Amino acid sequence: MQLTAKTSLYDRVAVLNYIQNQEYEEAIAYLAPILQADSGNSGLLGYAGYSYFMDEDYRAAGDCYRRLLTIDSNNIPALHYLLLIDMNEHPADALGYASRLVRLQYDRASWWRMLGELLARTNQRDSAMICYDQAYALAPRDVRTIAGLADLLMGSKAFDRVDTMLNAAMALDSLNPTLNKLAVRSAYLSQRYARAMLPGERLVRSDEPAVQALTWLALSYYDLKAYHDCIRVCEHMLNLGLTQESVYYYEARAWTKMSEYRKSDSLLRIALTIAIAPTAEWYYDDLASNHESLHEYREAVASYDTAYYLFRDPKVLYACGRICETEMKDLGKAKRYYLKYLAVARPVSKEEKEAYAYVRRRWGKK
Q1: How many CB atoms are located within 10 Å of the residue 44 CB?
Q2: CA distances, 252 to each of 210, 276, 315, 331 (Å)
Q3: CA–CA dist 128, 136 (Å, integer)
């Protein structure tokens, strides 16, 4: 930090020791009273702003840095930290700080990259592309710049340029996970699935938990009809703890293509369990109850039927049989539900035992 300090007010060495030892709370406790006595001291404002920032008190840090800009409107550290503070909450203000940094240090790649990122966030893609191109020209090895520029290029379907850029970067660092993720993404989105193999398998070997890239790798194998490899990648994801619904689903699809329907079915059931929240059973019960109260008995039975298919609660079958018997007067349909109920019911409560006894006595096979 290029700061000037009034050493008569504070011990600069002591402050630097606090910061070097990451004792930011101690630095704040030391600087705050002195800052109240001399709020126009640029050195105090700089050190206090940095300490507040590192202590994650961004409001206090912002106050210090904005005050510092009133003293020195071109203060680079103040503009930089205000850019970081406002990047998410106040993007318009952050754009102003980034633009000023670019004007002050035109050859600094990071300012161009951050300005490009902000422009992309605000959907100013053409301007963002210009900034990222400039950042890339200044720092072609910077992975963050490569990632931001690749994202814009893929949005424009400029996949050949993405591949050229990624190949140059991976020639220097072939194991970089960010670069390999980008390469898999480019290959999948451009439907050049074979190109996903090399970077994707690097992610597999490194045990990188890159759920989206690994999913694209699995789908690339699937689209290439390499179903064994699709299954292998899905199993790898599950072993990493990436137990998303989609992983089970894509593996199930691969097993289906290999005519292994039982394996596919078991995975689809797991996917279905994950996809539907357990509380959904309550919603189906309430829907059915509402329909029954409105004398919409077919709709009530349909809701209960869906609930049983999803959650396999035998009491739902009893409810279906009861409505068919007592409200719809469809004894044939009631009997089918009741016999299903008798086959799977395991009554526990007094009410359940009484219902089971009635159904067995009235509808059980003679």
Answers
A1: 27
A2: 20, 17, 30, 40
A3: 12
Place of tokens 């709370």: 25
Non-local (6+) Cβ contacts of 36 within 8 A are: none
Contact assessment for residue 203 and residue 237, using Cβ atoms and an 8 Å cutoff: no
Q: Write the DSSP symbol of residue 317.
A: H
CB 145 within 8 A of CB 169: no
Question: Of 180, 211, 176, 175, which Cα lies nearest the Cα of 195?
Answer: 180
pTM for this model (two decimals): 0.71
> Mean pLDDT in each 10-residue stretch from start to end of the chain (366 residues)?
51 88 91 81 90 92 94 94 91 93 96 95 93 96 95 94 95 95 96 97 95 96 97 95 90 92 86 74 81 89 85 90 93 91 90 91 76
Beta carbons of 101 and 111 less than 8 angstroms apart: yes
Phi-psi label, residue 165: left if phi above 0, alpha if psi -120 to 50, beta otherwise: alpha
For every residue of 42-56, DSSP letters joined together read HHHHHHHHHHHHHTT
Helices (H), 177-330: 177-189, 197-205, 211-223, 227-239, 245-257, 261-275, 280-293, 297-311, 314-326
CB 14 within 8 A of CB 31: no
Contact 282/259 with Cβ under 8 angstroms? no
Dihedral over Cα of 184, 188, 192, 196: its sign = positive
Q: Would you list the DSSP string of 18-35?
A: HHHTT-HHHHHHHHHHHH
DSSP H stretches of helix in 312-349? 314-326, 331-344
Report residue 22 as tokens. 């990451």
Only one residue has tokens 């005519």, namely 259
CA 103 to the chain's CA centroid = 35
Contacts of 279 (CB under 8 A, 6+ apart): none
Cα 217 to Cα 213: distance, rounded to the nearest angstrom: 6
Distance CA 290, CA 357 (A): 27
259 is written with which tokens? Answer: 């005519």
Residues 64 and 226: their CA atoms lie apart, in Å, by 59
